[in-house]
TrEMBL record:
Record's keyword terms, sorted: Glycoprotein, Repeat, Secreted, Signal
PROSITE patterns: FN3
SMART domains per record: FN3
Classification of source organism: Eukaryota, Metazoa, Chordata, Craniata, Vertebrata
Descriptive protein name: VWA1 protein
Cross-referenced InterPro entries: ECM_Regulatory_Proteins (IPR050991), FN3_dom (IPR003961), FN3_sf (IPR036116), Ig-like_fold (IPR013783)
Main subcellular localisation: secreted
Source species: Lanius ludovicianus
Source species, domain of life: Eukaryota
GO cellular component assignments: extracellular region
Stretches assigned to the Fibronectin type-III domain: 1-89, 91-179
Family matches, as CDD domains: FN3 (cd00063)
UniProt xrefs under Pfam families: fn3
Key word Signal present: yes
Family matches, as Gene3D superfamilies: Immunoglobulins (2.60.40.10)
Length: 182
């Protein structure tokens, strides 16, 4: 059965059983948005292949896909499937700073998206250009930033890094508390 994996907003991978070999033929692959079949695209694929990535697709669109084995030995019926691409990646829509102390604060963000591999939290004092980076696993939506200077304003930027390789960022300002006066 023809089916799709690794679906993103602009691509997916098609997998199919090994019906042909290099010697016995090739595949014709046809795909088009289900709502606009006139925009059909066609691709020829060697009989040795059992997978192919289709890219440059529109987000949140259902595609009709047909794989036609062109065999000079047997007749194989076309394999068809429907694949819907994901919504376009959206940037973090809010960055919240909380639990601010003299030397640390807590950063959290939303929404958490399945299409995010990891987040990068960049932070540095304002004004200034010394920036540090924290890598956070894509399953998490918060982190603690430590070893900061008291009574300082920091610019915090959260960058979502998507499976597709795209990046989207959102920034917020954070102020640390005054330190304990000795």
């Amino acid at each position: 059965r023809l089916h799709a994996t690794d679906v993103t907003s602009s691509s997916f991978r098609l997998l199919w059983p090994k019906l042909l070999s290099q010697e016995t033929g090739y595949y014709t692959l046809e795909y088009a948005p289900a709502a606009d079949l006139a925009r059909k695209r066609t691709q020829q694929v060697s009989g040795a292949h059992t997978s192919l990535v289709l890219s440059d697709l529109a987000p949140e669109t259902t595609y009709e896909v047909a794989l036609i084995p062109e065999s000079n030995v047997h007749y194989f019926p076309p394999q068809t499937t429907r694949v819907t691409t994901l919504a376009e990646e959206i940037s973090p829509v809010q960055v919240l700073i909380s639990e601010s102390g003299p030397r640390s604060f807590h950063v959290s963000w939303a929404p958490v998206l399945d299409s995010v591999v990891s987040y990068q939290v960049l932070y540095g004092p304002l004004p200034g250009n010394s920036v540090k980076v924290l890598e956070v696993d894509g399953r998490h939506n918060s982190t603690v930033v430590e070893h900061l200077a008291p009574n300082t304003t920091y610019l915090v930027t959260v960058t979502a890094i998507y499976r597709s390789g795209k990046e989207k960022s959102l920034s917020a300002k954070a102020c640390t508390q005054e330190g304990e006066r000795g």
